[in-house]
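Field guide to reading this record: the first block holds the primary sequence, the second block holds the structure written as discrete tokens, and the final block holds curator observations. Each block starts with its own label. This record concerns Band 7 domain-containing protein, catalogued under organism Streptomyces nanshensis.

BLOCK 1 — SEQUENCE
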Amino acid sequence: MQPIIIVLIILVVLVFIALIKTIQVIPQASAAIVERFGRYTRTLNAGLNIVVPFIDSIRNRIDLREQVVPFPPQPVITQDNLVVNIDTVIYYQVTDARAATYEVASYIQAIEQLTVTTLRNIIGGMDLERTLTSREEINAALRGVLDEATGKWGIRVNRVELKAIEPPTSIQDSMEKQMRADRDKRAAILTAEGIRQSQILTAEGEKQSAILRAEGEAKAAALKAEGEAQAVRTVFEAIHAGDPDQKLLSYQYLQMLPKIAEGDANKLWIVPSEIGDALKGLSGAFGNLGGGVPGFDTSGNGGNGGNGGNGGNGGAPGVVNPRGAAVERREEPPVH
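BLOCK 2 — STRUCTURE
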């Protein structure tokens, strides 16, 4: 009985292994290559698949999702004989599992080597400055070459990106100095433009202020002149409304004479001729009392009028000239 039990156990194990090998579950976005006696038979897609155990075998399982592969820095010589290190990143996707398995031994290594050679060809026709500023152009050229070469391998290159472009250390130092000089230059230009703009605005402000000040002074002068004119008109109208006689006018003229003679520095002044007419009126007013105004000559000769004609005894010699001539005032020294 024991040999029979052992045989049954072996049969059960074999059946279990056969079932495992018969049923193949392929995950989503994956594919499997089936070979029968070493020859390609078919490609298993996602889901449950049945194969012949011990006859069919799974050669390769391939991920059909987009893959990202970074490549290490590669030294590349530019057109101006400078060595730069360039890091690249490839985004690719397997579109044909059979071609990716049988058309190339290792598509990852093939893509890397193709990227390096293509990159050297592209960068070799550019100088350093163009290399640093033409990333999009380099990416497009790399993608075009890789997509054309990897199409027969069942690979589609979606994107090619340059991670970094590192020039030599000496070139980096020179570039930093140049950039610093450019920044200093731009800063100096901006500072000068700011000062110029500030001066322009200040000048415009001063100009506007001067214009407004002049307009204000002009308006103030006009208002002052208008006020003085109004005051003169008011006084004139009041005088005419009061109908003053000759005696009042003569008295007003006499009140103005001391103001004309004010100040020690006044050596010469002009006596208007109208004062003569005023004195004649006054002389007529006082004619009955004293025969004239002492100290004044109404005849136009000036000098010795009345009892005060000798100067210093109550008269006013050299003060009045009714014809409007210049009269000199003399000051006698005091008597001790």
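BLOCK 3 — OBSERVATIONS
Residues 169-242 form the longest helix (74 residues).
Residues 16-63 form one domain.
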